[in-house]
Protein: Inner membrane protein YccF
Organism: Limihaloglobus sulfuriphilus
Amino acid sequence: MAFVLNLIWFILGGLVLCITWFLGGLIMCITVIGIPFGVACFRIAGFIAFPFGKDIIDARLLGEKRITGTALMNFLWIVLAGIWLAISHAIAAVLCFITIIGIPLAVIHARMARVSFAPLGKRIVIKSEVREAIKYNTRAKIEKRKKA
């Protein structure tokens, strides 16, 4: 089912969105300060081409440490581009949701609204890995509380 949905998504706009995010990443990489944003754009471009069966989650759920300054960089992203990207994906989600057949596409746009708001510190994973990461982190938090 994910293959069919990915194919439909790719044809109906996924390719255009992928190219747009990739070009945005190239523009961001022109400056040294923009490189982290460019890398995030490339990551999102890879996700948005074929999003079904995958999800974007916080890297801390996978056990990765957050890079110092990620919050500040995400704030800069929100102010400069994130708010507008999130709004545009939210509007696209509403428009897709209005048509019954577009509901799966609306779900992807809603995810993209969330991740385009603050993309730094996110990782793309397969859906089953999301459940495992949440279980792992829940167990780790419980064990940490028991030790304290």
